[in-house]
Amino acid sequence: MELKLDKSKTYAIALEGGGARGAYQIGAWKALDEAGIRYNAVSGTSVGSLNGAMFAMRDLKRAEEFWSNIRFSQVMRVDDATMRCVFEKDFKNIDIKSLFRTAVETVRQGGFDVEPLRQLLREAIDAKAVLSSDVNFYLMTYSVTDHKELDVDTKTLDEDELYDMLLASSYFPAFKHEKLDGKLYTDGGVGDVVPIHSLTSRSYKDLIVMRLYGFGIERRFRIPKDVHITTIAPTRELGQILNFSNEQSRFDMRLGYFDAQRVLYGLYGVDYYIERTLDEQTAYDLLKRMCLHRDPAITLRQINENAIPALARAASNKSGDYYDLLISVLESAAGELKLDPFAIVTDKALYDMITHSAASKNPDSRTRLIRYFPN
């Protein structure tokens, strides 16, 4: 596969806030690391600031272990089993009255107690490594006391101040807010949930932005013409913002890894990760073969005027060339057959996998594809 990013460049990385969805960014980081992509600056908001500190530490293994083993009770003072039942909607195993009392008390106290998060930050982040890093690390928070957004260059902080600012950046509205050094702060997403401006204002030109589609306000500003942005964003639903279960985190991390591969290598597909090996003529021939599977007596004119347009409508692909249509149809069939999406596969290999899987479910060679390709 051909790498689409320029390995001779050094990039700056912007990490969006998004609570428990932050595991996605670690998976994307792993893909960048394997591809040999270099970076020298990172900006982060909320959970993006926590991940940003790990990026500054250049400790990918530690970040993977952190997110693979995270629990609700490490972030908020809650019961893990109860929270898991809530997010899995397993209400049969929840004491509803007790849950209601806990919710009322949480609201009365001003939100979830995040003292566990304070401790977690000190366990997960090596402040000395962050502050002495060759990576410039900037984080976003909002001072409620001063009524202003703060874009903090962590090189100006001492170790205790770094931990305070990481906590300040992560003060999600559902969390109980406490004063830090005499001031109240809230989640950096109040001012800028996707901290691109933090980097462009400091003259970084080649940016990689890792989206989470989290809670917050995206700052609107004009991107300088000489700035190039590469975006890595989820193609499937990530977990809910407060779903700090390690099972969900592992899924999000895996998705981040493969979504980054799609960007790095120009892979095709939306739900699958497809390497292109076929030309336009071959794609057309495969589409024609699908039509003949439906009706061996169909004419070439009927294929071109009726059958292929019908495939395009069924696959919701009304624009693009024959290759784009082929990919849409293959993804539709692969989804119907529940083929594992988490692998990089060539277009021809995916077609063969679909044919083989469909044949095993329906041995009639004339009808085995009809059931799975769009009508």
- Secondary-structure content class: alpha/beta
The secondary-structure element order is EHEHHHHHHEEHEHEEHEHHHEH
| Low-confidence sequence ranges | 365-370
Overall geometry = elongated
Question: Taking all residues together, what is the mean pLDDT?
Answer: 85
Largest sheet: 7 strands, mixed
Instruction: Tell me the number of helical segments per DSSP (H or I, 4 or more residues long).
Output: 14
The proportion of residues forming helix, as a percent range, comes to: 40-55%
What is the radius of gyration computed over CA atoms, rounded to a whole number of angstroms? 24 Å
Report the β-strand fraction as a percent range. 5-15%
Number of strands: 9
Could you give a quick summary of the protein structure above?
The protein has 375 residues and is an alpha/beta fold.
What does this protein look like?
- The protein has 375 residues and is an alpha/beta fold.
- It is built from 14 helices and nine strands.
- The protein has helices at 23-35, 47-57, 60-68, 80-87, 96-108, 115-124, 127-131, 159-169, 197-200, 246-265, 280-294, 300-314, 322-336, 347-361, and strands spanning 10-15, 38-45, 136-143, 148-153, 185-186, 206-210, 228-232, 273-275, 344-346.
- Strands 1, 2, 3, 4, 5, 6 and 7 form a seven-stranded mixed sheet that branches. A two-stranded parallel sheet has the order 8-9.
- A hairpin with a 4-residue loop joins strand 3 and strand 4 (148-153).
- Helix 11 (280-294) crosses helix 12 (300-314) and helix 11 packs across helix 13.
- It is elongated and about 80 Å long.
- It starts with 9 loop residues before the first strand and ends in a 14-residue tail after the last helix.
- Residues 365-370 have low confidence and may be disordered.
